[in-house]
Amino acid sequence: MSFRKFPLALAVTAALATTASFSAAAQADDDADALDEIVVTATRTAVTTDAALAPVEVIDRDAIQRSQAGSLGELLRGRAGINLSNQGGMGKLSTLFVRGAESDHVLVLVDGVRIGSATSGLASFQDLPIALIDRVEIVRGPRSSLYGSDAIGGVIQIFTRRDRGDATFRFHLGAGSHGRREGGLGVGGGSRISDDVSGWFGIDAGLQRTDGIDACRGAGFPVFAGCFVDGQTDRDGYEQHAFSLRGGLKIGDSVELQGNALHVSGHNDYDGSFVDNSDIVQQAIGAQLRWKASEAFDLKVSVGSNEDASDNFLGSTANGDFASRRDSASVQGDWMLAEGQLLTLGLDWLRDRIDSDTPYDETRRGNRAAFAQYQGRFGGHDLQLALRRDDNDQFGGETTGTAAWGLSFAERWRITASYGTAFKAPTFNELYYPFFGNPSLRPESSKTVEAGIAWRGERTGVRLDAFATDVDDLIAYDASLFLPNNIERARLRGAELRVDSEVFGWTVAGSASWLDSENRAPGPNHGNDLPRRARETARLELDRGFGAFRLGFTGVAEGDRYDDVANSRRLGGFATLDVRGEYRFADDWTLQARVANVFDKAYETAAFYNQPGREWSLMLRFAPAR
After folding, report:
1. pLDDT (0 to 100) of residue 6
2. pTM here?
3. Domain TonB-dependent receptor-like beta-barrel: where (predicted)?
């Protein structure tokens, strides 16, 4: 589907170009460093967004709250390089494709803890509570040289709420379409305990519930087409209970200890002939000790554990349970060799364990890894080199690396170039599922080259990145073996444009992406698009305050895509517009309102699965300013 037939996407792209040209002309003398934010995901060390050689994006708490997004999926959809597929609304399976890579080719962290199901390989984005999220860091491109398996398309790290200063109380209460109701409360803060010791804490709890929509429209004929069910026209609800606990101590200027825990439980109803409802649990627990031995050396020791569990039912009859647990530990040392020269050395340990009534052939495996990274600055030049070796109980060793370079010139401009390799370990379902698993599978692997150019002013940033990725040994069903096998290949090429600015009092955040994903495996599907990836996506957010009032708009546009590898089932492109407003009627009180999908656009991101039409929501918030 071309942009000529795609009016909102065209408008978004034009707005981005207009914003960039206007701001470049109007802000020639602005301070180029004013919009820098600190990120840690791109390098496992603290760097500013503009200093990072990888394309990064930060969504902070203010932006999350302004967006009035009802879920993490709503917050992420349409952003640069991201395609989201959802199977029936809130709480239903949501898979994320970053730069066209597979949905299990993105590494997801919560407060530094690796999360995701070891059986399916997927992270449950739909179950992560947006009300408890403080910020999201998105890193695009391969990062296996620092994190190991999964980071082919990129890394998304989610940080839960952080509190500093005097202890304060907060709460929110909301309602909306489809019987949606939600609420939450929290308290947190920090203070000095003694001359040499200070501490902080935070506690938040939230509830989200919806009666839902009819998740699957079905196909009528043949029986079980689409969602493997016909004739279920009931509403498919979702309920989520979330709790987070954080705390830390800082002793003097050299020692800091902190811990965090996020626990989510819930119930999900959906359409199915074998399973139609589930009880779910998502949990991430972690702790970190940091010792700043000197101005030149930092040592960090981290431990974490993630649980991903689902008890499945058909009606009230139990019909399978799956639980995976990932325990991890890491030791990392950072040496400042000289001004602008940082060396990082580290060790990672990971163990996956499965607990299920399905008799898997193997139920645990371990992974050990060593990594090194060098970051150097030489005048206007920046250099990053990283190398990692993973040793896995199942497939043996895997070595990955990254080399990246950047050059700043003409005060405001920067160009970057990089090359990186990455891999994805086979899942327990692919390896050990009874009568289906193939323990001889090799990891999926990739090679990526990319280049970018960026301009930064006081209130404006523009960045354009292009990439090309070859993925080998993709795992797919092999009819000759009646088992999964490393038989697929893919080529991914694309470009991403991002603009952030302030224009005539409006805060503008926009992005546009172009993707060419191609199946390169021999056979009848050679040359086809990979399923569920739109060739074009765009997102534009506009916000402005008018005294105690604030008005905002979010437009998302996505081109057409195919739902199957044969490219026989096409999903049409679509565009949606959300309108939102808020009124601060007292110092600490805000009333928010939103109408999503204002024009009631009907669309699908996964064939046969309905998406909500026009929706409304109201939210009352109490949050003292810090």
Report:
1. 41
2. 0.93
3. 260-598
